[in-house]
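Data availability (excerpt). The following record was deposited with the supplementary files.
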Amino acid sequence: MTTDLMGRRCLLLDFDGPICAVFSAITDRTAAVDLAAHLEISLPAEVAASKDPFDVLRYSAQVSPEIAAAANDEFTRIECRAVELASPTDTASDLIREAAESGRTVAVVSNNSVAAINSYLHAHDLSTYVRSVHARTDGDVTRLKPSPYLLQEAMGELSADTSECVFIGDSVTDLEAGHAAEVPTIGLANRPEKVQRFAAHSPAAIITSMVDALQAMRESRP
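Predicted structure:
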C-alpha cells in the first residue's frame, strides 16, 4: 500500500514532524509561554497551562481579529527562531530531493508559518526541490488543519486531483484534513502511542519513520 501511494506524482508533506522537529531546541511549552506573555491577555487556565502554542493562537482568534493578528506575528517570530535550531527528521531531506529528482512534485502543507518553513528550506538547501508552501500567513485559524483548506489550495496550485497526491502527516489533525480533502494520507507514527491513535482514524497507511517513506518511494515509479 505505501509503495503504491509513494508512486503518486504529487508528494504533500506536513512540516513539523515529517521534515523537522520545529520545537526541538526551543520547546513547544516555551513557545506557548512566550507567545502568551507577548499578548498580555488573560488566558483560561487550560490554555495558560498548555504546552501547545497553537492553543494560544486559537484562543487569541476568539478574542478579536487584532489580537489574532498580533498573535500570528509573534508566533511567526518564535517559529523562525525555533527552526534555526530545529532537528531535521531522519531521511526527510533525501526524500524531498529524490522525489523532485525523480519527476515528482513536492509541496509543504502545514499549520506552521510560511516564513518559518521557507527559512528552514533555504537553510537546508531544499528550496529548489519544493514547488510550493501552503501554510499559515495570518491569524485566520479557520484555514488551518483539520480544515481541508490548505490541502485543497496545494492541489489547486499544482493542478492535481486527489488520485495524483499523497499526504504525509504526523497528527490526528493531518488525518482529519486528509479525509476532508479526500487525499490519501499516510500517518507518521513517530511515537509508539500514535500507532493505535492513528488507526482509529483509518489512514491510507501508517509508517513509524520517514525512512519507510523513502524506501517505499525508491521501490515505486512516479
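Summary of structural features: The longest strand covers residues 105-113.
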